[in-house]
């Protein structure tokens, strides 16, 4: 059990993971951010403003929905969905974007930059920038811009400048590289609004704290509904923000099992998946983009390209707290393939009238497997981290159908 | 014995220098000689494996002949976040040929037979970490490397690394940046041996029209805190820039413009000679103003 050690040390280490592995230029701004966050965290007026925006602007609390037909279909554990897809902008990303935008304003920064993979974090960031009147630049891989064209247009409508990153694998990793290069160049006036529980300290901690609202709500909701804690929590893990947000408030509840679902892609071979805990597939501890964690890499430490049907999971590293929870044995990590996610996407659409994001569909896919093995008196909560409208083109393409 | 004699009294690193090493390294010797002769240094950067690893060895020898004080040899990495497009592309070209730490060390070992020029390995952390820090230090020393600078490793995360380097008589070189607080500059000076690499501007590597005014201010701040030699890099691309940096720093590092010249000449049969000529053209012709 890891009781009492769910907080990182002062330099942001969870065991051997985390820390700050950045060019010297970024050390001062990271320290400035750490101090600003620390002050904000202890300031009741900051918390009040954060909570009121989550409520009045984003529509929290999000419902905990009992998926009766899905449960019946599987014939096992009762499946609940934490409906982050019903948040403003369509995913959990808005929680963190609101929190960090408030921080940026307190720090006097007027220019916000961010990276995005699936576009959900980019949309959330563009949204809060519109709300706060900040200048906004979003970095996005060329490949992701192609497969998430709808989100690109949404960001532009919201007044953001979307910069295409035409380097390397043209996905999330390259977008983060470019955002870091922008930040290192414009540190004076720019706030880097990192979208996942990744990167150098204090980002993994800040993002987790802003996303923990998911788990706190879910915990209260299930207690009210069922009078007891769930048996199992399931969430997809890209960088790991929706999953850590759900898991964290339950970490000390020893009997709650937790499962993070990575992108299994097309197979185990390096380059064909984004499952960082797949040792056979090239995942092992390393340093990427500011943090020590599990990283998909070749034998010489070059970062591997990844594949997933979902842009939001298509990333070679995982947040450092997940690396720690993995090694500690507190959270299990498994993977779901592209095909399994695609099937879960369709199943949830037809059985519950909910189009899940392809990212979240990975969690659904694993929930189907687990629920089947569990008794009908058991309870599973799946984090439905985002809605699937953005993925309709991808799904149509995968199913061999053309839409205009 | 410290690599350099203290110029002033009460120097901070004399007190906090667990980092200072007993023996005098080739890097320390070179800077000491420059100071004795009241000269300034020139440090070209090249990406190992661009255009190919055989040429890298020849370029090291040629740059030594061209008057380099020291050479910075870049280890290619897939995600060079501190680099601008010129060095990013050089890194990609080297990686496409499968160049990694092993090949870089082999190239250094070959060049070592022909030159005593100090060589600093300039790398991102992950390729070194995966090679194994102890094994890396041992093999780097055996190949003839004199010091290592890791772009994304700050002293706070480097305790083990510094120990390993020093056990193998390798200099640990850290970056100082215009954004670094005085407290951080003190830490950097304490953990650095050989020379401090002062980043001239906030930003990534790449050619610039002018030297940032941030550079002189940073060097002045460092001078108040340490007697270590200071090299200034990032955006130093022409002879005028080198001359300007020489007015306040011990050495100028020129990276992207040399790497761009190599890219431009790739395929030319006399590439090595012409890169040497380009390097010579970066050295100011006028005498030092001191």
From TrEMBL, chain A:
Keywords: Amino-acid biosynthesis, Aromatic amino acid biosynthesis, Lyase, Pyridoxal phosphate, Tryptophan biosynthesis. PROSITE patterns: TRP_SYNTHASE_BETA (PS00168). It catalyses: (1S,2R)-1-C-(indol-3-yl)glycerol 3-phosphate + L-serine = D-glyceraldehyde 3-phosphate + L-tryptophan + H2O. SUPFAM superfamilies: Tryptophan synthase beta subunit-like PLP-dependent enzymes (SSF53686). PANTHER family: TRYPTOPHAN SYNTHASE, TRYPTOPHAN SYNTHASE-RELATED. The beta subunit is responsible for the synthesis of L-tryptophan from indole and L-serine. This is Tryptophan synthase beta chain.
TrEMBL record, chain B:
Pathway: Amino-acid biosynthesis; L-tryptophan biosynthesis; L-tryptophan from chorismate: step 5/5. CDD domains: Tryptophan_synthase_alpha. The active site is at residues 72, 83. GO terms for cellular component: cytosol. Keywords: Amino-acid biosynthesis, Aromatic amino acid biosynthesis, Lyase, Tryptophan biosynthesis. Its EC number is 4.2.1.20. InterPro entries: Aldolase_TIM, RibuloseP-bd_barrel, Trp_synthase_alpha_AS, Trp_synthase_suA. GO terms for molecular function: tryptophan synthase activity. Belongs to the TrpA family. Tetramer of two alpha and two beta chains. HAMAP family: Trp_synth_alpha. This is Tryptophan synthase alpha chain. It comes from Pyrinomonas methylaliphatogenes. The lineage of its organism: Bacteria, Pseudomonadati, Acidobacteriota, Blastocatellia, Blastocatellales. The gene is trpA.
């Amino acid at each position: 059990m890891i009781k009492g050690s769910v907080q990182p040390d002062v330099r942001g280490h969870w065991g051997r993971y985390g820390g700050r592995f950045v060019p010297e230029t970024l050390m001062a701004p990271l320290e400035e951010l750490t101090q600003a966050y620390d002050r904000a965290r202890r300031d009741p007026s900051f918390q009040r403003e954060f909570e009121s925006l989550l409520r009045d602007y984003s529509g929290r609390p999000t419902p905990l929905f009992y998926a009766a037909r899905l449960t019946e279909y599987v014939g096992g554990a009762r499946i609940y969905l934490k409906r982050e897809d019903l948040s403003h902008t369509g995913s959990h990303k808005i929680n963190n974007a609101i929190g960090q935008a408030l921080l940026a304003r307190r720090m006097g920064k007027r220019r916000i930059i961010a990276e995005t993979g699936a576009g959900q974090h980019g949309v959330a960031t563009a949204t809060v920038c519109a709300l706060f009147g900040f200048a906004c630049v979003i970095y996005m891989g060329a490949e992701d811009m192609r497969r998430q064209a709808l989100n690109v247009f949404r960001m532009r409508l919201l007044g953001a400048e979307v910069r295409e990153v035409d380097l390397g694998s043209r996905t999330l990793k390259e977008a983060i590289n470019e955002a870091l290069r922008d930040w290192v160049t414009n540190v004076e006036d720019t706030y880097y609004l990192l979208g996942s529980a990744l990167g150098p300290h204090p980002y993994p901690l800040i993002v987790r704290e802003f996303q923990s609202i998911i788990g706190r709500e879910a915990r209260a909701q299930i207690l009210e509904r069922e009078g007891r804690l769930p048996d199992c929590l399931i969430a997809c893990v890209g960088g790991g923000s929706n999953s850590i947000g759900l898991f964290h408030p339950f970490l000390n509840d020893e009997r709650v099992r937790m499962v993070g679902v990575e992108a299994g892609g097309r197979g185990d071979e390096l380059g064909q998946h984004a499952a960082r805990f797949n040792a056979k597939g090239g995942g092992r501890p390393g340093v990427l983009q500011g943090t020590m964690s599990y990283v998909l890499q070749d034998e010489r430490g070059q970062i591997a390209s990844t594949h997933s049907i979902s842009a939001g999971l298509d990333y070679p590293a995982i947040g450092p707290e997940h690396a720690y929870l993995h090694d500690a044995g507190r959270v299990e990590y498994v993977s779901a393939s592209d095909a399994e996610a695609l099937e879960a996407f369709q199943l949830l659409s037809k059985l519950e009238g909910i189009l899940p994001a392809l990212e979240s569909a990975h969690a659904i896919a694993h929930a189907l497997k687990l629920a089947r093995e569990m008794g009908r008196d058991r309870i599973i909560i799946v984090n439905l981290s985002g809605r699937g409208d953005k993925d309709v083109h991808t799904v149509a393409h995968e199913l061999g159908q053309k839409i205009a | 014995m410290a690599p350099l004699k203290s110029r002033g009294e009460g120097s901070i690193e004399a007190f906090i220098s667990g980092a200072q090493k007993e023996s005098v390294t080739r890097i320390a010797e070179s800077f000491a000689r420059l100071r004795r002769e009241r000269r300034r240094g020139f440090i070209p950067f090249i990406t190992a494996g661009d255009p190919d690893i055989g040429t890298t060895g020849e370029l090291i020898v040629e740059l030594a002949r061209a008057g380099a004080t020291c050479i910075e040899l870049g280890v290619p990495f897939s995600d060079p976040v501190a680099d601008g497009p010129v060095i990013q592309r050089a890194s990609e070209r080297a990686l496409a040929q499968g160049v990694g730490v092993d090949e870089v060390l082999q190239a250094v070992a070959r060049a070592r037979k022909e030159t005593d020029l100090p060589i600093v390995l300039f790398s991102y952390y992950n390729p070194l970490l995966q090679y194994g820090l102890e094994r890396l230090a041992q093999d780097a020393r055996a190949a003839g490397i004199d010091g290592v600078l890791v772009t994304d490793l700050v002293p706070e995360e480097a305790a083990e690394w510094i120990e390993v380097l020093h056990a193998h008589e390798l200099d640990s070189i850290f970056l100082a940046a215009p954004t670094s607080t005085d407290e951080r500059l003190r830490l950097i000076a304490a953990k650095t041996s050989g020379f401090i690499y002062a980043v001239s501007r906030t930003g990534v590597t790449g050619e610039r029209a002018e030297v940032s005014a941030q550079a002189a201010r940073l060097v002045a701040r460092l001078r108040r805190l340490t007697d270590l030699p200071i090299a200034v890099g990032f955006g130093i691309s022409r002879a005028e820039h080198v001359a300007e940096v020489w007015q306040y720093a011990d050495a100028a590092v020129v990276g992207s413009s040399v790497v761009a010249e190599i890219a431009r000449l790739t395929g030319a049969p006399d590439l090595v000679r012409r890169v040497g000529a380009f390097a010579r053209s970066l050295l100011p012709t006028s005498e030092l103003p001191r």
